[in-house]
Amino acid sequence: MQLEGGPFVSDWWIKRSKNLVAYLNIDAFRGAEPKMATVPDQGLLNQKGGSSFPFCAFFDAQGDVLFEVNPKSRDDFDRGLKAAQLLIALRKKARDDPKDLASQAGAQLLDAIGRRQRKSVPRKKKKDLAATPELDPEALAIFERCEFEADFLEVLRNSGGSDAKAADLVIRMHRERRLPAAGSRYELAFYYYCAQSALHSKDATSAARFLDRLRALSFKQKASIRREIESELREMSKRLKALKNPAPAKKSKRKAGNTLGSAQSLD
Amino acid sequence: MQMKAWILVVGFALMASTTQAQNRELKRYDQKIHKPFATAVAWERDFDAALSRATNNEQIIFAYFTRSYSP
User: Fold this and answer.
1) Which helix (DSSP H) or strand (DSSP E) does residue B30 occupy?
2) pTM of this structure
């Protein structure tokens, strides 16, 4: 399995696991086969609201799920850990001061965001919670990041596999200042479509800006993706160059030839 | 009244197949807990023990749920 042969045997994980309690649950029975008394915690996944494997989540010391994560990337893991720690802190603040509505809302919002397999919370409810005055800025940032990612994925789905349509929808997001957070996994794709859109609409200034952004982001990618994006960058840079220095039109070339011809003939 | 012979045969066959299935699953479980990922760090495999450790050390639990019968 990807996790077991990857992140979970890395030095990164060995170091991270020292600051938390790592719990491993191995489900050892299938379908109607009986549970085995010698294997601990069989059926715990369902009790905790999980519905499929793998299921990864941060839990508090009372055994409640705080935040579900997809730990295939270290960033996702670290963001999930940060959100779980913030959720504990906000719950404590809300308990200590029942009038602290902002902390209550912040805790509810984080709980709603951290649901992947457990029963989800409607997006409208999350937006209402995020609009609570004096909401914790970190909780709001986590919400905005998730909202952007949901919007961006919707755009990709709605574009029906057409790059041109995706570019058109993504540049609208950019105009509305719905932007990826620094380090977002969608940052590269977002600015790729922005650059495509700017080139298509012959906006050389914006295209140059987006290509610079894309170039900077390409350095942060792993080698295989970097090679892909470098090839795209070369092609887009050529288009940008052509935009900045348009070749003389064929018609005017012919005119020049004619002029030359006339001059020669005059000579 | 004595149990019919065929019922005993079917009953024993069923018990044997259940035991075989359990043994197979236990073997898979045993293989899984000895994989490099499972031994790379000190995973708790008992949830109550994980809760106790989290309480005593004031730490968060990271839980990974997987299957013995997945690769």
Assistant:
1) helix B5-33
2) 0.79
Contacts 24+ apart (CB under 8 A), A85-89: A85/B60, A86/A110, A86/A136, A86/A138, A86/A139, A86/A142, A87/A111, A87/A114, A88/A60, A88/B60
A interface test, pick of B66, B68, B69 with most A CB neighbours within 10 Å? B66
Chain position carrying tokens 């030359």: A260
Identify residue A17 by its one-letter amino acid code.
Answer: S
Query: What gap in Å lies between CA A72 and CA A248, rounded to an integer?
Result: 51
User: Residue A59: CB partners within 8 Å, gap ≥ 6?
Assistant: A23, A48, A65, A66, B50, B54, B60, B61, B62, B63
Task: Tell me what ipTM this predicted complex has.
Answer: 0.79
Say how far apart CA A175 and CA B58 lie, in whole Å. Answer: 45
Report the residue from A14, A21, A28 with minimal CB separation from B50.
Answer: A21
Q: Do A1 and B63 touch (CB under 8 A)?
A: no
- Say how far apart CA A33 and CA A43 lie, in whole Å: 12
A112's CB contacts (< 8 A; 6+ apart) are A120, A121, A125, A126, A129
What is the distance between the terminal CA atoms of chain A, rounded to a whole angstrom?
82
- For residues A177 and A149, give the distance between their C-alpha atoms in angstroms, rounded to a whole number: 14
A51 touches chain B (CB under 8 A): no
d(CA A91, CA A66): 11
Q: In this complex, is the C-beta atom of A228 within 8 Å of any C-beta atom belonging to chain B?
A: no
| Chain B residues within an 8 Å CB radius of A61 | 51, 54-55, 58-59, 61
Would you put residue A112 in left (φ > 0), alpha (ψ -120 to 50) or beta?
alpha
Sign of the dihedral defined by the CA atoms of residues A211, A216, A218, A219, in that order: positive
Q: What is the pLDDT of residue A267?
A: 29
From chain B, the residues in CB contact with A84 under 8 A are 60
For residue A9, pLDDT over 80 is answered with yes
Q: What's residue A76's pLDDT?
A: 85
Among residues of chain B, what percentage have pLDDT more than 90? 51
Cα distance between residue A164 and residue A235, in whole Å: 16
